[in-house]
Design a protein that fits this description.
Layout: H1 3-9, H2 13-23, H3 29-35, E1 38-45, E2 48-55, E3 60-63, E4 72-77, H4 78-85, H5 91-96, E5 100-104, H6 106-109, H7 113-116
Parallel strand pairs: 1-4
Antiparallel strand pairs: 1-2, 2-3, 4-5
């Protein structure tokens, strides 16, 4: 496991989302807008749900739900969210194994990995 990957594994979900948000500045906004879409992530831990939004139409990420209906909604537990964004487990494997519920535009969701993967 690389240094960045192991460093990110110890962060909580809020810290990981902040890292994703800061990484958005490193992407070409034109290419991000080509993918486009609003993606809602509902991360479950125990009985609480932490929601955050990745808006590739505006090339931003923020805590909470979007003001518009999301194009795609992901619901998964905190463990699998960490596995996904740190690169310990492939997004397709998580989805196919039923560890993540995805509703909405699944084809667009498949293009998200570069924007949410930190490892």
């Amino acid at each position: 496991m690389g240094a960045v990957q192991s460093e990110n594994a110890n962060l909580n979900k809020c810290e990981l989302v902040m890292k994703i948000k800061s990484r958005l500045n490193t992407f070409d906004p034109t290419k991000a807008k080509e993918v486009g879409g609003v993606f809602l992530f509902n991360i479950i831990k125990g009985t609480s749900v932490y929601s955050w939004t990745l808006d590739l139409n505006q090339v931003t990420a923020y805590e909470g739900e979007p003001e518009v209906d999301p194009d795609t909604t992901f619901t998964l537990n905190e463990h699998y969210f960490k596995q996904l964004v740190t690169g310990k487990e492939d997004a397709r494997v998580i989805m196919q194994a039923g560890r993540c519920s995805v509703t909405g535009d699944i084809m667009r969701a498949m293009k998200l990995e570069p924007y949410i993967k930190l490892g």
